Amino acid sequence: MPSIDLREMVRFLLSGGVATAGNLAAVWLVRPFTSFTVALLVGIAVGMTLSFLLSKLFAFQSRDWSATKGEAGRFLIVYGSGLVLYWLAAMGGRVVFNMMGVPMGIAESLAILGGAGVMVVTSYFGHRFFTYRQTTGSVGG
Fold it and tell me: 60 lies in which domain range?
């Protein structure tokens, strides 16, 4: 069973936090000049770009620039899969919490947190063992 590198995981979480902050900052900066939808798309593009670069260079320390194209493709697969799992977990959690009698506002908040947690965990493992894998089977360098 593969071991978990806690320093790598912390770097991954920090990278995600910075990418999220970049997403929000981009939305807030461009929103006065464009529609909400366009601002969200700009935020997503900025956040995803930051996430890829920080994951590659900081979290997983992949310095092989010749591998970047393949890593970017795998990153998009993991990111897209994570979004689907986030959505499924949040929607399912919303139903379950509401069936348990939790008020809808609280049920939705808990479901969002749960979905985000699912996405963080699945994204970490997806990136660690798929996106930034190396031919030797190790990650980092």
Answer: 6-131
